[in-house]
Amino acid sequence: MGYTIYYKVYVRRWREFIVLIRRACSGLGLRISVRNGEVMIIPNCGKVEPLRIPKKGEGFVKTNLVEPYHSVYTLILYSISSFGDVSVWED
Given a cut of 60, is residue 55 above it in pLDDT? Predict the structure, then answer.
């Protein structure tokens, strides 16, 4: 069974968040797609799902505890607290 991160977000300062996330993903070598009020971070690993972050909403992502993706996704999600509201929980 895969390890899953669940989240609920409301990114109030969306444009500022996008600037940070693009810079961080570029430095980490992760691909990023931004469209229709959603950011998608695409890992370089088939065992890890892309992280989809809506401007407002909830979601989940299976990381299977594959590092560094699990830790990076967790850090990205918690960083949303600087731009709005976020709740994160794991199983």
Answer: yes
